[in-house]
From TrEMBL:
Residues annotated as domain Gamma-glutamylcyclotransferase AIG2-like: 4-105
Organism, scientific name: Helopsaltes ochotensis
Enzyme class: lyase
Pfam families in the cross-refs: GGACT
UniProt keyword annotation of Ubl conjugation present: no
Name by which UniProt lists this protein: Gamma-glutamylaminecyclotransferase
Gene: Ggact
Lyase recorded as keyword: yes
Purpose of the protein: Catalyzes the formation of 5-oxo-L-proline from L-gamma-glutamyl-L-epsilon-lysine.
Catalyzed chemical reaction(s): epsilon-(gamma-L-glutamyl)-L-lysine = 5-oxo-L-proline + L-lysine
Enzyme Commission numbers on file: 4.3.2.8
Length: 156
């Protein structure tokens, strides 16, 4: 099992969460909520209003999201879904645990108690330079005050 931190449309209550609970795509078990240890810019960009975490450590906000344990099948699905490695790149990041529900081995419990876990995160280093000038968010909600509703793939 691998640990993945999701901050955008794959979170509970968001437009693509359905993929996280579709066991035909693999297994994803919700472990808890967290936020990035380092600050990053989280922007909503492009004509489909997609949330992107720009891989610019030290700029922006501590991004809030959810931590999942996923099997190899789900990880492969997520790589494809996220357009990895072209649109997003899957990298390890340190995530501060805010709330933990996971029931794992002793090592996982210790890491969670410590407060910091290493998780795979889909961020991007391949973005148009003007995205750096967009508003930065610390949390994503497709129906947030920003008014930039996410456009589902099936509607594009």
């Amino acid at each position: 099992m691998a640990r993945v931190f999701v901050y955008g449309t794959l979170k509970k209550g968001q437009p693509n969460y359905k993929h996280m609970i579709n066991t035909a795509k693999g297994l994803a078990k919700f472990q808890g909520r967290g936020r990035t240890v380092e600050k990053y810019p989280l922007v909503i960009a492009g004509k489909y209003n997609i949330p992107y975490m720009l891989n610019i450590p030290g700029t922006g906000h501590h991004i809030a999201g959810e931590i999942y344990s996923v099997d190899e099948q789900m990880l492969q699905f997520l790589d494809e879904f996220e357009g990895c490695p072209d649109m997003y790149q899957r990298t390890l990041m340190r995530i501060q645990v805010v709330e933990w529900e996971g029931k794992g081995g002793a090592a996982e419990a210790r890491a969670a108690a410590d407060g910091v876990l290493e998780c795979f995160v889909y961020s991007t280093a391949t973005y148009p330079p003007e995205w750096v000038g967009l508003p930065y968010y610390d949390s994503y909600d497709s129906s947030g005050k920003h008014g930039l509703s996410y456009v589902l793939r099936e509607s594009r």
